[in-house]
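Kindly inspect both lines:
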Amino acid sequence: MKYDVTVIGSGPGGYVAAIRCAQLGMKTAIIEHYNSLGGTCLNVGCIPSKALLDSSEHYHNAKEKFQEHGIDLSGLKVNLPQMIRRKNDVVDQTVKGIGFLMKKNKIEVLHGHGSFVDAHKISIAKEDGTKEEIETDKVIIATGSKPIVPPAFNYDKNRVITSTEALNLPQVPKRMVIIGGGAIGLELGSVYARLGTGVEVVEFLDRIIANMDGDCSSELQRSLKKLGMKFHLKHKVNTVKALKNGVKVEVQKRDSEDTFMLEADYCLVAIGRRPYTDKLGLENAGVQLDEKGRINVNDHLQTNVQNIYAIGDVVKGPMLAHKAQDEGILVAETLAGQKPHINYNLIPGVVYTWPEVAGVGQTEEQLKEAGIPYKSGKFPMRALGRARASTDIEGMVKILAHKDTDEILGVHMVGARAADMIAEAVALMEFRASAEDCARMSHAHPTYTEAIKEAALAATGDRALHV
């Protein structure tokens, strides 16, 4: 078979790229190593983790807040197997939805491990041991990423686990050690902390979610401490030893020889992810990698081989599903002769704990480092009537604007529905709005988004109305 475009990988970047190519009239195929479509995000990442986050938050609210709302319960308990069944149902429905979209857009789905024979030929090794070879004019590599697990951590998928295994534990652990204070570790850590697990986080840097604004880090850590989570910042893990019924984790202070041992039922390794290009045969096509194992691409996401493109986690930039989707659309439209663009400064980052954390643009730390003159406006969520009504009073919204021009340079927030609210900030910044523009916009009352307006008022001369 010969195709106009072949996409390798069916995660958010891959399947969206395939759909857009098909919409633009290209004969399109998509190759997926696993039996189900959707990649890491839909199967063992974004979607299942959010399902468990939601279930655990319902339980936590029932346990901690329902009485305040006048709802009395008795016999409340966690049914983890049912939580996991619901999570699996959500994943199944979502994956089937991707299958439907492939059929709707007449995209050929080829299951098996794809690898380059040359720049225009791809071999597909199938589960039954057979191989199929296809020809293609263009190729989009969208094979995603895998968790980084150093050998010293003795990853066994049983007691030493990654996010994949953490989604299917047989029972609620009594204790869990998490290596890494980034989004993945904190989200899954908060799931189990809500269910009653004693969670300890070991982070090498001096704060959690270190890629986000410092005020967000502080706010989130304060909230997670209230859940009972403990933090060992400026510490590193030397070794992890799996036992029959638990783990022993040797921890060392970053600037000291002092070490101590943490014991737990599980150790979750969440120190980041690596581009997944294993056995892809890139050398057969002549595709070059950078020093970090990522595929080298230009501004059009084109590799050094003219007909081969790469998107998502295998190229530079944040490993985010929505970034991969935007890149998939960009490549498809580029192939069709259009002139798309992506403003990478305006790709929002989100942590789906509760309260949620979201940010877009530059952080205060980045502005200081770059020497850009700025002004800041902050507004606490507890000052909102809507937040008090729902008992979601933790967090804040922070707007950073240029000191001279008032253009919004960054928006960072911690609070209920921050993941949804950040879209307003992205829209404002896409059109290069000023803090004054935001302050003049009418925001419905009572809503969480009023905090954005109040932060804008604060940034334009300490004009916030409700503090």
In short: The two ends are 66 Å apart (CA to CA).
